[in-house]
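Why Epoxide hydrolase? Reviewers of the renewal asked for a concrete example.
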Amino acid sequence: MSAVPDPTTPPSEARMPAQPQRFTIDVPEAVLKDLRHRLAATRWSDDPGNDDWRYGTSSAYLRSLVEYWLDGYDWRAHEARMNRFEHYRVEIDNVPIHFLRRGGTGADPVPLLLTHGWPWTFWDFAEMIEPLADPAAHGGGPRDGFDLVVPSLPGFGFSSPLTRTGVGAATTAGLWSRLMTEVLGYERYGAMGGDFGAVVTQRLAHERPDELIGVHLTRYRRPSGAAGVAAVTGGREDYGPDEQGDYERDRAGAALTASHLAVHTHDPQSLAIGLHDSPVGLAAWLLERRRSWSDCGGDLESVYTKDELITTIMLYWVTGTIGSSLRYYWETAREDRPLTGGARIDVPLAVGVLPGDVSALPRRHAEEDTDLRQWTRLPRGGHFGPAEVPDLLVADLRDFFRPLR
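Here is what the prediction returned.
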């Protein structure tokens, strides 16, 4: 691997889309004051018989979380924790991109791009950053270090405001390639992603194989359709003997994603107007997904602290990006960008299978379509793997990239 480049001193000004600028996360006090007013003035709906969340987010649970949000939660403390890392913003093709950067330690750390999904944020990788960048201090070998780049998807969090339309997962893959090669000057790098991050990472593997050392996904979906983002999930016969129950779990998971997929891909702005105006409405929409898609047995706080849940909501609220994040579905579903580079992925590929995820796809597809090097059935974890089981994914990433260095 090459030495870690300094993003503020590009190797060639002619190749640069723009000069990345350091910035500090510092939400205006007026935004926080307005938030407190809105939380305190919430008009609560009636919610009989919903302690088990059968109708959606439980108002009883949400009320208790809002009480803590008002009286116990400290945004400035979490802001300070985020600001321990370097943050940059750069514009590429009229798209604002935020990324966190943490240089790796040890001999020749591997550049590694980590891409989140929805309703994730870049901060879902928070507990993985230091163990990946400084493995010797976190139970790993001194030669297992990674030089980390953790962007926010376009229209999510600090990659805003996104005023350009037509930006979905396929477009993002091209933006990420330019970020890593033109802006940061890496010749080759690794990539990891979950949810939309897995779609973007797969797209990178199809279209930029010469740039990639290897890719790690928390799910592999066989692509179909012009944009290469629709998925072929497979029939019962595609699952192997060690995947008993996965076919049924995949079909059951489809029911847990149906409501948000329908509205996000067809009329996201109608929903965005209400969620942008109400922090409690925003919380209700995000929390239901966190609970349904996590490996938490229906108990959110068995996996996440109240602070972690609220911080995720805050990153959508203080940046005003719930609307543009919802549109990412609409745009991705309609991108007219056929796959280039062939249908097969020849980049070394790994999949860390999360048993509590809403999808459970057959290993056979990855074996037939890709240069599959590692398929790990993790003992626990759901859809938000980096936030739920960071230790397991850190170990899986180290194991996968070790022979590729």
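The longest strand covers residues 345-353. This is the kind of structural detail the renewal will allow us to pursue systematically.
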